Write the structure tokens for this entry.
Amino acid sequence: MKGQVLILAGGLDAEREVSLAGGREVAEALDASPQYIVKYREIDQPTQDELAELPGDVIFPVLHGPWGEGGTLQELLENDGRPYVGSRPKAARLAMDKVRSKELARELGIATPDWIVVHRDEPTPALDLPVIVKPIDDGSSVDLHHCRTKDEVEQARQQAHMRHERLMIEQFAEGCELTVGMVGTLALPVLEVKPADGLYTYAAKYERDDTRYDISPRLDAETAQCLTSLSERIFRKIGCRHIARVDWIYDEYDGPTFLEINTMPGFTRHSLVPMACQGIGLDMIALCESLLSMAITDGSTHEDDEMAVAIGRGCGDACVTSAPAR
């Protein structure tokens, strides 16, 4: 007998269009699955009672941003009582808070760029340029600016503060941009992102076709294993479950530098976790089925489970010497 899966997409965050595109991809994949009947719903911000009225045995929320991925929706899902894909509220909040997630990375001895937090009415302190100006609690590089001069910092602040009271000004880290997807407790192959203009902005992610992606880039085995193990450690430290994506800057002299972790990565045709899965022969149908299976069993992580067999690789506890905090 087929189960009913409720796919939620939309929300009112800045990533609504990304969510809608990803939700449609997930719905299309699960429509082709023999295991589920799909109930797809585009939402704004439903109340607890409104969520309870929506049909489905298990919920697959494909939402992003502070409301959809940052703990608020997850509280509704917890109270609803049905199984759902993704991290629980506490982990979702920690991951969405870029300051807190960077602090947790440093507690593990993992390098992350220095940063300061500025409020809307505060003057900009003296900075070592270049820097990245970005919101503390948003995703998809929304309102992200690479600033090389003080004037650019002021312009970036003026624009970003229109939607955000607090911003992070982060030291720019040189190197290649790498990402490690996590499905269950298993790390996907390292993927390198190569934006045409050097910065992985919202446009480079979702609007342009000149961003290049290299699945399993030419890293030595020790470096790849270190990135894998560090990603798993951050995943565990924050308390994530089912799926996440950990973003890094890598320089051959400084090693890996942690940027952020996303607890509900995108599911669009440009998105990195589905792309990494495809690179090892795991299509969108199998990925979505496996996530729902984990949700139903509340995140079973046995090495012999369906996902481990499908991916054929694990992520151990050991890591080569981690980079020092700086």
